[in-house]
Each structure stands twice: as structure tokens, then as C-alpha cells.
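Closing statement on the NAP sub-project.
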Amino acid sequence: MSVDEKLIRAAVDCAEVPALLPAVAQLTNDETLLREDLRPDPDRLLEPDAGLTPEQLDTARDLAFEALRDHLAAGAPAGEVDPDRLRRLLTFVVGDDAVVGEYLPLFREELCAAGEDPRAPGWHKDEVAPDTSFRVAIVGAGMSGLLAAYRCRQAGLDVVVIDKNPDVGGTWLENSYPGCRVDVPNHFYSYSFVQHDWPQYFSTQPVLLDYFRRCAEQFGVLDDIRFSTEVTEAVYDEDRERWSLSLRTDEGEETLEAHAVISAVGQLNRPSFPDIPGRDRFEGPAFHSAEWDHGVTLEGARVAVIGTGASAVQLIPHVAERAERLLVFQRTPNWFVPTPEYQQDIPEALRWLQRHVPAYASWYRFWLFWRNTEGMLAATEIDEGWDDPRSTGVINDVLRELLTAHLHNEFVEAPDLLDDVVPTYPPSAKRVIRDDGTWARTLQRDDVDLLTDDIAEITPRGVRTADGTEHEVDVIVYGTGFQASRFLTPMRVVGRDGVDLHEHWDGDARAYLGINVPGFPNLFCLYGPNTNIVINGSIIYFSECSVSYVMECLRLLLEQGHRSMDVRPEVHDEYNDWIDRGNEQRVWSVPGVNSWYKNATGRSAQNWPFSLLEYWKQTRRPRPRDYELR
Ligand code: NAP
């Protein structure tokens, strides 16, 4: 077979070496590629190419090129990945066989090295309870809901998905503001078992939406979804051990019964508007980032953007391109992590490699997973006795210095802006945002003003700041975030003894594993309390773990002939004490820093404070003794 050597050369030249060598070794069965002197340095994972020198990189690429060329020319079959080989390949990337031993089952699930789906439920209703009727209602057809629906289908369950929107995608459907894109590397921000030919390292919203639409189709769940239907209420009937859901549709109200309810409504989907006086008096168009009004022309307009969080930072450069003048109202500056490839397309040669060497896509995903996740957690620790308010510990301070240097570098030609753009709080106390230089370039435009005075009121013609100045604008955009701590709102949820979930939580949501709440049998939450990941991972990872756990819960119910399961209060409370102690050791708990990571009580009801491995271990399967089973 003739092979295009130029193409192979171009592909290996732009591949990540720590992923390239195991991928080619897997494909060709040639483990001599895994040379000790070409191994990524486990202590330098966050450096470019994990600390490999240009000479090492050249050698690695040459070896991979030759092996790949010969393999393709011979038309040889792809190598098998038996468990021993898998472990050797993993040890090459991770650098420590003991660590691989600890993570091995998780790695297998994440890697899907042979294109399989290890997290698929290992049971089917026809085998465990063929004569029991059991319906699962899933609220939400976003990333988590689609996954849950697919797993239920794989297990042969009767499933119905209800979504208020007319299409799948959840947050990726609703957020259509200009510049919207994912800020977790796409190969990792995707289902482990559905890899994709991503056009960008961090794809834009239309690409993400398209991915979830394709997944819904591939999962065969589209016919199970009731679109444009909102669940207004879910009430548990204790005698019948069923949930009754009130639905609001275009045609009117109706009810639906289910034996179990999976809430997949997300955390960041109910817009939050600031409590600024006069908001209703503004006479021009005003809208939220998540409810972008595409009918409003920004060309030639004077625009105010209020807020500078992750959403606003993405949309502001695009608004600046169109508006005649842009006023950016910033209350708190962000830390930015330099990410040169943030808005870059994936080179065609690399996409060729992913298509022709599917193992590369798996190993690249694994490499991102390993490099960007567990190692990052140390930078969020609060060291005992640390008394510099700008950081929380030795490693956090190293991060602060790196990110400060980045900002100084970015604003070298506008030093007068530095006081306004360099945060005084520790990095990762709020979301750290990705940047390829666009932010500094935008703020330095002549037609953009950064305003840091408090906003006193919204007037009919614009925004008045605390110094009394009225800033006249034609359009106001609220990039003011979401009601993240109000889990499951505005849905009313009533459990045993008529207890209302929101009254029970009283603004301070808690759940066991982020999934179960005592007194609410057979209710399972996805992306529930304390399952947000701050710095070290992708929320899809959490959803996959949570859904696997929920599927094991349903198996437990069906296999053992129970009708309901309710987590024991003492199990739930002990777990939450553990979570709170964990969060108290993390930078996002420091007092005096405002963020959606905390609820009104100041407690982090959002974030997971431990490693990814820990959540995986916790959610492997339910312990029957943790539940009251009926
Ligand atoms: P956010 O991070 O909560 O940011 C809200 C912004 O509005 C902050 O700058 C906040 O200032 C400001 N604000 C709120 N009330 C204000 C007031 N009364 N006056 C002035 N400013 C006010 O919301 P977000 O930007 O929508 O992002 C939320 C989360 O969504 C992110 O952290 C991320 O997890 C996710 N997200 C992800 C992506 C992505 O993947 N690319 C993109 C967008 C969002 P303070 O900081 O002072 O409170």
C-alpha cells in the first residue's frame, strides 16, 4: 500500500508526543517506542511538552513516523490492547507504576482504548426484573440528561425525558452569545465513549450543540424526549411509591407518573440579574448573556456590559468589534491562564492522525485528563498558618506569581490598567479564565472603556456609577451569571411527609454524593450539590460517574425487588460534614471573595473538594446499608 509520507510527517510533527508514542505503540504493537529517555517527566506535567527537550521531541517524532509509515504501508491490523500492555502504555505516560495501579480501573474507563464503552450498565431489566414495570423520568435533555437517557435505554428501562426547550443541548442550546465556547479542552469535554473529530481545541457553541445533537441521535433517545415541556412540580406519593410530575406544555397542563426521577437540570441555567435599582427603567434593549437577543443590532451602538465573568469575557471582544463604543463594568478582575491555542483550529494533519490512528484520539484525551486534572488540585490548598491574603499556600502562591507575570506581560503597553486588572484575591478562589491575549487587546482598544466604580443605578438612558456620572448607552448586556446555588429551581419538589425540597434546603442545598437527599426516595440529581469541578477536570466526567452510580441504584432496586430507596439521614450528614471539611481546605472557601461557588450562607454548596479518583471511588456502586430500601 502506498502511504503519503508527507501527511504522516505533518501529523506526527503536530501531535503531542506523550500521546503519540503510546498511540503508535498500541497500533503497531511496537513497544520499543516507549523509551525511558522519551518519557514525560511526571514533575513537569504542566510545562509545554511535559518538559521534553526539542531533541527528545524530534527523536520521538522520528520513531513514531517510521513505525507509523511501515505499519500503514504493510496494511497491518491494529494491535490488541491486553491488560498487561495497557498497563505498560499507561505507565509510560504517567511515569509511576504504583500510581497506575491505583488508578487502573478508572483509567480503563476514561481511555476507552479499543473504542469500547466500559461504563455501559452491565445489566438489563429483562434479566434482573423482567416482570416489573419501572419508568424513569429524566428532567433535562442537556449533557447529563442525554447520558442518563442512553444508560437507561441500554439497561432496557422505560424512560421519558422532559425538557423545557425545543431541542437538546441544555446550556449549549441556551447560551448562543457571540464568542461562546467551551473552556475545557474538547477532547476531554466530551463523553468518554463518544469521541469526535473536533475542529478546534476549545470548540465554539455551535460545534458543541451539534455534538450533543448527534449524540442524542446516536443514542436513539430522541423519541423519548418531550420537548417544549416544563416540569413545574414533582410530588412523591408514598403509598404508591411513585413520583407524579406536573407538566406545562403549549397545549396546557398534564401529569406523568414515574418510579424514579433523575434531575438533570444543570447548575448554571437560570440567569441571575443584579439587584441594581432602576433596572426596569432602561429604555433601550437589555438582555442577559444566556438569553442573547440576536435581533438587537450592536453595530454602531453604545453598549454597556455589566460583569466580567467567564461568559462576559468571551462575549466582550465580539461586542467590541461591532459596537461604536463599549463600556465594560467590572466589579472584580479575573485571573487568566495563558492558553495560546484557545481559539485556534486543530491543524488538518492532526485531524488526519485522529481519523487514521483512532488510538491517538484516546491517548490524547487521556493525556489531557492526566495532565490537567489531579495534579492541579494542589494549587487550591490552604496551607496552615499561611498569612498572605493574596494566596493560600506555597503552591497557590507559585500559581499567583505565574498568573501575575502573565497579566503584566499582557498589559505591558498599558501599565495604567494594571491596578484594575490584577486581582488581589488568591487564584482559583473564583473561576480562572482562559486567555490567548484577546482580553488585554480588547481592553486596550480606543473604543473600549473599563469602568470599575460601583454601579449606583440603571437610568432610562444608561448606567450611573457611584461617583454620580451617568454613562449613556443604547444597549445593556448583563453578563451577571446564574442562580447557581438554587438547585432544581423553579421546579417544586415534594418528598415524603409533604416536605418541600426548597424549604428543606432553605438556600443551603446538600445531597449525598450530590445525588440523593433524605426524604426524597428515588430522586437522583446529576450535577447536584458539591459536584462542580473548579480547576481539575470536566463536568462530563462527574456526570458519567454520577450516572453510573444511579444505574447501579436502579439495578439494586430492581434486582432485589424493592420499590424505593431513600438515603439514610446519618449517611447523608456524615458525608456532607466530610465535604465541608474538604472545602474548608480549598481556596474557594476564603472569606471576602464573592463567587458563585458559595451560597448565601457562605458555604460552598457547589464544589467538589477532592480528587477525581475520589469521586469515582465514591460512586462505584451503592452500599445497600446506606439506604432505607422498601
Ligand atoms: P459569573 O462567573 O457568576 O460572573 C458574573 C459576573 O457578573 C461577575 O463578574 C460578577 O462580579 C458580575 N456581577 C454580578 N452581579 C453584579 C453587580 N450587581 N454589579 C456588578 N457586577 C456584577 O457568571 P458567568 O460569567 O456566566 O460564568 C458562570 C460559570 O459558567 C463560569 O464560572 C463557568 O463555570 C461557566 N461558563 C463556562 C464557560 C465556558 O466553558 N467557556 C463560559 C461561560 C460560563 P463579581 O465577580 O464581583 O461577583
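Residues 5-118+352-373 form one domain. With this model delivered, the sub-project is considered complete and its resources will be redirected to Aim 3.
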